[in-house]
Amino acid sequence: QGDDGDEDFHLSQMLTLSQVQGNLERRSQDQVNQKVSELVQFLLVKDQKKIPIKRADILKKVIREYKDVYPEIINRVGRTLQEVFGLQLVEMDTKHHIYILTSDLPRVEGENLRRDNETAKLGLLMVILSFIFMK
Q: How far apart are CA 126 and CA 62, in angstroms?
């Protein structure tokens, strides 16, 4: 059954940009955006549970009848993960199509760690002052 998913993907992979655009026009933007949201949530849950993310699972459990716009959905998911969560979807195994999410955020160095303590105190101060202001 996994082979069927791969076969469907290879068909969608061979779609030209104009075919994908035509398929997108037949789908409502709300439907495509819903699938993007579902896939982002699916990927985040899989990553949190440290379960391998397989393309066959993505196609079977989330994308389903939207295989004709799979490339566009993946592009939007990649942008969303990058912009909102600072994560990047990386294909680890090209033969079995297994993905992982990696952090795209810069690593914090020792100098910046000391500032974080001050930032935390400042954040707490802002919350307290905001509370006083609201009362």
A: 42
Sheet of strand 53-54: strand arrangement: 53-54, 98-103, 87-93
What are the average pLDDT values for consecutive 10-residue runs of the chain, which has 135 residues?
46 57 73 90 92 92 87 90 90 89 77 62 83 76
Q: Is residue 83 part of a domain?
A: yes
Close Cβ partners of 19 (under 8 Å, ≥ 6 residues apart)? 68
Has residue 93 been placed in a domain? yes
Which residues, at least 6 apart from 38, have a Cβ–Cβ distance to it below 8 Å?
A: 62
Q: Is 4 within the bounds of a domain?
A: no
